[in-house]
Fold this protein.
Amino acid sequence: VVKTITEVSALKSHRDSLKESIGFIPTMGNLHSGHISLLEAAFTEFQTVYFSIFVNPKQFGPNEDFAKYPRTLQSDLDLISRSVEKYPGKQVIVFAPKDPAEIFPSGQDLKISVTGLSTLLEGAIRPGHFDGVATVVYRLFDFVRPAKAYFGLKDYQQCLVIKQMVKDLTLPIEIKCLPIMRDSTGLALSSRNQYLSPEQKEQSLLLSRALREVISIIDGSRTNLTKAKKQMDDLKTDKNWNYLELRDADSLSENISNSQRLVLLGVYQLGATRLLDNLQVEVK
Ligand code: PAF
């Protein structure tokens, strides 16, 4: 069963009518199998899953793609319905506000900022982006009061920001960050992939290939890090990289001398489209 709700008041009263704990998947729509993998994970634990579809204006910069971000509500709902059919007895409540004022009423002046983490990497290139993400996710959490919320690891830094927000505000919500889904070429699934021309699609292969190459040089051993960094420097002579960085997997600190878990984060830009990807590695 799929029920669609467009108003916060209706969402809140629906939530109040439920006694059980629920799972939640916040999205901006234009769903792909990455999103559906989150839904399926939630179904393993919850009878009722809330799913939001909202293109959040607060997380887009002035020159970004807010206006042209793909809005495909009907096909998103069809995809969710087809997925739910495979799970008899489960229900999905889709919250798809038509008006951003539902979430950000005029006069409200809230901003949640996870300082520090939000200014690194993506945050340095997109100032204010993670404040916009944290603020909308906080609002949604407040409406939905989930026991667990699910996110994709493609937006690795977003996962860390949200985990930190939940920890700092002591919200009783478990954050699950689930593996990146890829197409057959290795490209991480993203709604923005559809902006790519056939030629750019071809070029995009370089991103996941480069990440795999560096991780295989590291091969789980700290002694290989110098060699890996040399390879990263060679790769970065290609000006399409916004960044390619090896960081501590928990703090995103550049100082990795004592880190056991690392994350290699890359953003490769083709035209106006920035493709994000990352891989984690443990080192001894
Ligand atoms: O990852 C996304 O799609 C968005 O950043 C999120 C978490 C739904 C907040 O708008």
